[in-house]
Amino acid sequence: MISGISRRKRRKLKSEINVVPYIDVMLVLLIIFMVTAPLLTLSFEVDLPTSHAKALEGKQDPVIVSVLADGQLSLKLPDAKNPERIDASTLQAQLGAMAAQDKGLRVIVAADRAVAYEKVVAAMDVIKAAKIEKVGLATDAR
Prior knowledge:
There is one protein chain. This protein has 4 helices and 7 strands, in the order ααββββαβαββ. By secondary structure, the protein is α/β, with parallel strands linked by helices. The protein has a domain at 50-141: Nucleotidyltransferase, domain 5 (2-Layer Sandwich). The strands form 2 sheets. It has a 5-stranded mixed beta sheet. A two-stranded parallel ribbon has the order 1-7. Helix 4 links the parallel strand 5 and strand 6. Helix 3 crosses helix 4 (117-129). It starts with a helix and ends with a strand. One of its GO terms (molecular function) is transmembrane transporter activity.
């Protein structure tokens, strides 16, 4: 009887790993990450004041509207040496009168880095209300 037990064939152990469940889990995780990754980037920092843009070329110097750090507006005309502080309604009236005389009038908006973006957009809204078509942003060259 002992000889009958020893003659049984023992099953050999498999030394392979079944990777199919791991592939399924990996594909599910990939889909989860693809869906959630765009949701994680809700805000980011922007550093706008520098640019590689070319300087303006033209015969006429532009009108410069500056947004100061405290939110005040100033206007520098091409023939003036220093900008003058101005409120939004007066700025709109002056730019509107200038645009009525010259349809090709160019206006540049300049703002300090510390100025809130909302104030720059408000200045651009005033310029748009004055019917100015050519508006640019001033930046420092790199």
